[in-house]
């Protein structure tokens, strides 16, 4: 062993230490945030499917279920998104009061601090359901339960801070927000210039050691109405009042917004969405050191605290909203396609409609599967940072595709705004989800694979830690073990990937999963090919891979697909392998496999080391990218899932907030039910070449009851197809003035003509 270490490993160790790229403290803290879970299995190249299938699915407790079907349903019934957005520009006071009284802001706060103490899955289900009724309300509820003062206090706060603030937050006595983004620092939040200078000052009539803060934040959700601001800033100690360092690093503190120097209340209007969002400023705001979350000992630890909290939060809120959006699009668009006729037939019969409709349905199945699996991991205490990044990125991106498809199928119905338009607000909200909690471009190009390669790889982090070890001898010993284990792993992966690729996964490991068994084999095949390509890219590019963003993005896409498709398989298994749902699973698998194979081809076509690229192509893709996506028959069957009332349709779009009023959704559901119930009578009418149901009744073609059903269906469809229109003065406050001026000049002209 010492011979290997001293004569083989030592020169490699010395070379690697010299080329290892430097890593900033913020980069290291971001990489170390959270933990790994199923992503680590995928990175091995040989995932253990029995481990995934044995993992307990997320379930609601009786108390959580009662809340979902009690206060959540009550809240949804109080919401009118058209009035919220276009008349009130805010939630009405009674809704704010209800949200506070029922502790929606305290879902994640433990019961010992007067919160509801709900699981991540319950949090997700609540956000999902509210999202299907009102995005403004959903965002209002999700933010206090995501990254912010509540979660940071629970994780890092002192006992005194927790006892003081958590009960107030749970009861809605304080409304929280978190100030991270500033004009100078968006995705690169670590470059913020907001400052806190340690000094002595007067606070509540006594002189204490504290921080004088100056900041400018923007895009802060709940900021305009917040009473408690969580603030991220860079702390400095120029007079060395707490230590010998001048720059202490990013710190997070609690700022009651009533303090002198705090300016808050202005509002942004994000993509015409009216959830409370706005900028805030602080000018020489003084707080004692015990307002730092976690107390003085947490000075300079803010970035690590934030990344740790974000590692879980990104996997809940926006993925829940996105899954709701896709399910909502599937249910509404399927119903609309079924009832809407063009050229004398339902538009659902056109293959040009079936293709996007299947894409919506498949996306809804996939996103909710991934949401449930991620929440199950969070319920068990995991904080999978890489998976949370995958979820935020792909949930919001795929919701965008689903909503675009829904808009295309609805046509003018979804374009003309008004109380009867049930898609327009969701369409406008999409860019918000894409942008917040880390821009998707950054997440795809730098984070998913960049963080995943280091955290989820079996040996890479061990090697990096050994190379950065200050004790050179200790580092060499650790490197020797990790490096040769890595070499052995790479050779095993190479032969595994070669064999599975050349046999098209025929002998790859898979559980006995009925109709889905073949899908597991293909994922095993792609996982081994991914692990091999990742190792070769890291070996040939080293630290330069960090700057090859397009390559990194393609690797990230493959890792993401492996996770999302694993989730779809897990869902199908957990729901009892429902035969009726198989087309949705088949659509997901074929679409995902196409993406994976195309990304492999793109990687091999662009890997700088061409001999290595040629070798990899020979090993894993000798015949090129062969999967072309879902077949036409799968597309047809997948589209059918949302075109008729069925248990499969209900499983695909479960527990959405459809309130029984005369709004657009209620009209649509009624028309869908009536059209499907009267379908046989409509067929008889067409077969007899008749158009009037009364004539058909008179001729005995259909019964009078069937005729009345047809009439009711026709009337219901007409109501759905209607779009809103407005009197000019209802849309423009200047119209009356303009009309008066026009009338004045008209009368003046008439008088002159008469004279």
Automatic annotation (TrEMBL):
Q: Which pathway, per its entry? A: Lipid metabolism; fatty acid beta-oxidation
What Enzyme Commission number(s) apply to this enzyme?
A: 1.3.8.7, 1.3.8.8
Residue limits of the Acyl-CoA dehydrogenase/oxidase C-terminal domain?
Answer: 300-447
Q: Where is the Acyl-CoA dehydrogenase/oxidase N-terminal domain?
A: 80-173
**Alphabetic keyword roster:** FAD, Flavoprotein, Oxidoreductase
Cited InterPro entries = Acyl-CoA_dehydrogenase, Acyl-CoA_Oxase/DH_mid-dom_sf, AcylCo_DH-like_C, AcylCo_DH/oxidase_C, AcylCoA_DH/ox_N, AcylCoA_DH/ox_N_sf, AcylCoA_DH/oxidase_NM_dom_sf, FadE_C
Recorded catalytic activity of this chain's protein: a long-chain 2,3-saturated fatty acyl-CoA + oxidized [electron-transfer flavoprotein] + H(+) = a long-chain (2E)-enoyl-CoA + reduced [electron-transfer flavoprotein]; a medium-chain 2,3-saturated fatty acyl-CoA + oxidized [electron-transfer flavoprotein] + H(+) = a medium-chain (2E)-enoyl-CoA + reduced [electron-transfer flavoprotein]
Q: Where is the Acyl-CoA dehydrogenase C-terminal bacterial-type domain?
A: 454-726
Does the keyword Oxidoreductase belong to this entry? yes
Protein name in the entry: Acyl-coenzyme A dehydrogenase
Q: Which family does it belong to?
A: Belongs to the acyl-CoA dehydrogenase family.
Listed cofactors:
FAD
